[in-house]
Amino acid sequence: MPSSRKTILVVDDEPQIRRVVNHALADDATRVLEAATAREGIDMAAAERPDLIVLDLGLPDGSGADVCREIRGWSQAPILVLSARHSDAEKIALFDAGSDDYVTKPFSSAELKARVRALLRRAATRDAEGSTKIVRDDLEIDLERRAVRLGGSPVHLTPIEWELLTALATHPGRVMTHQQLFTAVWRGRDHGDAQQYLRVYVAHLRRKLESDPVHPRFIFTIPAVGYRFGT
Amino acid sequence: MSRRRRLRDATLWLVVLAVTTAILIPFRAELDKAHITLVLLLVVLGAGAQGGRALGVGIGAASFLVFDWFFLQPLHTFVIANPLDWLVLFAFLATSIVAAQLLHREQESARIAGARADEVDRLATLGAEALAAARAEDALAAVASMIRESTDAESCSVYIAGEQGLRLGAASPASVAASGVMPAPPLVEWVAKEGAPAAQTSGGTTRLGRPGLRVREIARKSDSDVHAILMPLTVRQQTVGVLRLEGGGIAHLDDSQWRFLDALAYYAALGTERVRLAAELANVEALREADRLKDALLASVSHDLRTPLTTIKALAHELGALGDERSQVIEEQADRLNRLVAGLLDLSRLNAGAMPLHVELNAVDDLLSAALQDTEPRLAGRTLVTDLPSDGALLVGRFDLSLAIRVLVNLIENAIKYSSPGTTIRLAVRREESKLLVSVSDQGSGVPAGEEERIFTPFYRPSSERPDAGSAGLGLAIARRMAEWQGGAVTYARTSEGSIFTLTLPAADLKEL
To answer: pTM of the entire structure?
Structure first.
């Protein structure tokens, strides 16, 4: 980035929504660009290289998942999807296509700002990825030595639990779909009904890491879609 | 049989008898009495077979006299010398009469069988026509015209009983229908209501029957003066319509015509029933189409409403930043409208059985943590306590996580809404046999007595609640249907402290992992 000023691209065919997003996000440190169609949005994303893209799902000239996939082909900018109503299948398709988060209409300005801030923060820390140690609160994951410590004490994980934790923890803040997790852990090997037990493996992992499994600090459930590590 | 033909037959057989006698006379010395009676008996049987019972008996009597006169000693007198000859003579007479009688009976049953075969034939044809008619109204019209033809009536009308009263379903000739005897005459109404037959004389007298009485019994009381007869049409003890016959030959129906009319009336009853069912089917189709439209409309409305609601909320928020406190009310109302539309859409999908369902193996931890994450920021001074099994066992079940979360969130929201700040809400999970029980108990005022089941009906509001309390009364109705949709349940019970709502879900057993 030549300047520290962030650029956010809003792709939405409704001028009122573009105005709302613009008003909520634009400030001294952020400039907001607007596009009204999928085509225009993709062109502008390619030309302006925004730091974040807010994408409406109900565009007249293209499905949201296709736009996500196209942008993801050459950009790592976080994509926040706006939608009036998602079915579970649509949500999963969006995450599999590379979107990072979604907000359901009608959303509040505060909610939108919080999501955008979280996505930008996460994108900024992405540069730190590649280190061999992940630390969050009192949880330490040593990728090199394959060791987990909680509050200083070692935690014993089974091989599958270890794979699950590293798949989640190396994508902090990012929603991992069930399919993505399954692929990461089993790497395409056929494990019969392992996929249907994925949620149970995560529950066991959570029981080992979280002091209160119904108030998790590390692994959050995204209903019907998957899991997310960290906020 | 005509009088002329009878006379001709009688003459013919008398001639035959005379000729036979003339042939026999020259040989009477050589012939035995038995031979003569056998020959004469043949003549009697011939007469009976061809001319009927009366001729048979007549020729029998004539032969009796001929036998006595020409063949019994002393000849040419009716005096009988040998007493044994009386026996021969009377045996001959009795044989003749019995033979004629038997012949007659045979012929009669053959004739009846023929007539019956004819009736069956016509009924079969009618049945086939009625079944083949594409439109139920056409089938009924075919029955009406068949009834008119077979009874020689001037007109035949069939009225159909429906929810909006009686209407003319078919008439023969068709001009009767065109001339429009609408609405149904009062007597037709009476017949439909009472399920009893009635008749009218040409003098204007009306005779009313009792239910179960046959119309012919009433018609007979009017002698030959019947002008119109009305009979109820029943299918499975239900009066489905009324058959009305007027004028023409209905005053002179014979037994077989009455019987035939009864059979045809049953066809007419089935015809009216078919018309009614066809109308009902069309109605059901229309309702289903309306349901589809309603669903599509709700989906589209709920989708299209959210974009303007987002704008409204955002603008309200901006106004709030400028210090206008009313903006908060606008935001709240926008959220309420959104919830209402979403609720209506959910309800219509659940009612239509069109709610997408993804039943998977899920841990209860996921259900509780997601529901708590959603509701804990809204406790507003209430304490929420979670009770998990004390042995730390991981509970799993087969259910749709998204839907189960929505049910549980609704139960917790309900507990918040109907309890006061400072009280405790308790969320507990346990397994009982093949079921997972997730219960939410509060220290609120509870459901008014007598309304324990009504709270699960759509648009329910507690009788004590103000009408503007901000709830559409859809939450629990949707919650229960969503639970049932995945094989679970939502139940309510009163506790000493307040209410307890329990979400039941199918439990699952874990294999060794």
So the answer is: 0.61
